[in-house]
Amino acid sequence: MKWQGGDFHTEFPALEAWQAGAGTRKEDMFSASQLTPEQKEALKKWAAEGATMSDLQRHLKDDFGHTVTYMDTRFLILDLGIELIEEPKVVPKEEVKAPPVPTGFVSTTMDSLTLPGAMVSGKVTFSDGETAIWMLDQTGRPGLDPDTPGYRPTQEDILDFQKQLRDLIQKSGL
What we know:
Elements: H1 8-11, H2 13-19, H3 37-48, H4 53-62, H5 70-80, E1 107-110, E2 118-125, E3 131-137, E4 142-146, H6 155-172
Antiparallel strand pairs: 1-2, 2-3, 3-4
């Protein structure tokens, strides 16, 4: 659509108001010059004591009667050269897993609810106390997922596990 002439500003009053600065909030922006030297020192003191940005914003409102936006608080902190103290992030320590208790024998159980993608599944505890989840997939291939990454049971434990697994499967009718 082509503009055909006429007074551009009378046809677009919103544009004229925008160009004149109406609707902007420059007069509402908060400035550090609105604070007394005592208030500035109080903000610096609170920041040195570990106050957060939100804490300072709340102090400005509650203690000094200045309702300030978060962005204005941020600019105020920059203008006053206040550095906020960040709390060091606490990294949770990994749980220390209790060492396995040797039982001296292999114990194999079958799950009543089979794992997804498995024909049959269960749990096994080897003679050294290490545990694993076992499964047979739809084609009969075995799978073993030990609780300790990289664990390999002894040859005697594998033979004992295979015998118990065969007995469990026969008893279940599979």
